[in-house]
Amino acid sequence: MLQRPLVLTVALLAAITSFDQPSNAVTAGDWPQILGPNRDGLAVDETVSAWENAPKIRWRTKCGAGYAGAAVSDGKVFVWHRNDKQETLDCLATDDGRSLWQANFPAIYRGGVDADRGPRCVPLVSGDQVFLYGAGGDLSAVAVSNGTTQWTRQLRTEYDADDGYFGAGSSPIIVGSTLIVAVGGNERSGLVALDTQSGKTRWTAVDQEAAYASPVAIEIEGQTRIVAVLRLQTVMIDPASGKILGEFDFGQRGPTVNAATPITRDGKLFLTASYGVGCRMLDMNSTPLKNTWNSDDVISSQYVTPVLIDQWLYAITGREDFGTGELLCVRWSDGEVAWRRPGFQTAHLMGLGNKILAQRVSGQLELFAAEPKAFRSLATMDLPAGTYRALPAFSDGTLYCRRNLSSTESELIAVELNQ
Q1: What SS3 state is found at 144?
Q2: What is the pLDDT of residues 261-277, one digit of tens each?
Q3: How many whole angstroms separate alpha carbon 201 and alpha carbon 211?
Q4: pLDDT tens, position by position, 330-339
Q5: Cβ neighbours of residue 369 under 8 Å, at least 6 residues apart?
Q6: φ, ψ for residue 320, nearest 5 deg
Q7: Beta strands across the sheet bearing 326-331
């Protein structure tokens, strides 16, 4: 049995009409989706200096259930949570946390292994729309300006998908005007593509259950492809048609999850999972797809996505529920380990220039140098007591982190790291 809830989530950005490139209008100061502007845990044009005094908490606000991290765009913070029988999107001002508007939806998820029944997916902000994927597999689009609901689909119900261990947790991705969702439904509806404006289905593909890793975009021969990690298989697809262009096994049967989002660079794809799966680097330009290197004892991340800075991966290996979280630095090209930091604990990692910020699940921030020579800690800070399993967001020098106090209550905290 899985012993504790371990999930992540969510998406890519602004709309353009061509499938030649992902809809990315990368803007410094925005964190509009899971893992930031490029879905890789790297903040664009942002840095943080080592602090001597504990950074100031600018504001904090109560939320309901869920592990969905915040999204930040154009002076607005979006937090997706559950209060009793409603899933709620709160839109808050970045400067003081005041409420700008709120959107509410029926909460249809009835629970699984984890007592927390709130949303798992980070909201996706794209142009003038915000997309929300609930724990029960209900997908909605609302207006950024005022929260007006534009459309809603109960995808897991429509396509007869199983809730899995923790409900829906893989965040959608946008290419052009197409929103692609890992639904995990029957009759080749593992992936479902929708029109962003109407919510109507464009195509369905793949006979696979959904996982908890979120899809990513990759450029292959000048064309945008989508890579989706599913329950036991990873696929590369054409986002225009849903045609499968490459596929390979990745995962393990039994009580396991694939939850870390893939990392891509120059046509290479890096995957990792725990539960005996390990890690794998593939050359996605080759036909058939070719292993560059793989290992079951270098990086085995239960759910934390590594960050890639220069030619080095910084990653957490091990399992939170076993207390085996270890930080390590690994060479991107061949998996050679530069250094290890045993006992580091499970932590979300975020790249900020030549530094990395770690947010431990136990509630401590640690800033360290992104250097392959040796681990070098620069500053630490204890956050208010709680569990910090939700992904953090970073925008204009401010960290937005969410602490869970119980299975029904949490809090969003804005921490000023550049004072």
Answers
A1: coil
A2: 999 999 999 999 999 99
A3: 21
A4: 999 999 999 9
A5: 354, 355, 356, 376, 378
A6: -60, -45
A7: 307-309, 312-317, 326-331, 337-341
pTM for the model stands at 0.93
Residue 367 is given by DSSP the state: E
- Picking from 350, 362, 345, 327, the residue whose alpha carbon sits closest to that of residue 400 is 350
Identify the pLDDT of residue 29.
75
H or E stretch covering 79: strand 76-83
Residue 396 is which amino acid?
A: D
Fold held by 56-416: Methylamine Dehydrogenase; Chain H (2.130.10)
Total number of residues shown for the chain: 419
Residue 37 tokens read as 């502007």
User: In degrees rounded to 5, what are phi and psi of residue 55?
Assistant: -55, 150
Residue 20 pLDDT: 35
Rounded CA separation 198/144 (Å): 16
d(CA 287, CA 306): 26
Residue 118 pairs with which residues in a beta bridge?
none
How far apart CA 66 and CA 408 sit, in angstroms, is 8
Domain ranges of the chain: 56-416
Closest residue by Cα to residue 301 from 376, 236, 381, 229: 229
Contact present, 125 and 172 (Cβ < 8 Å): no
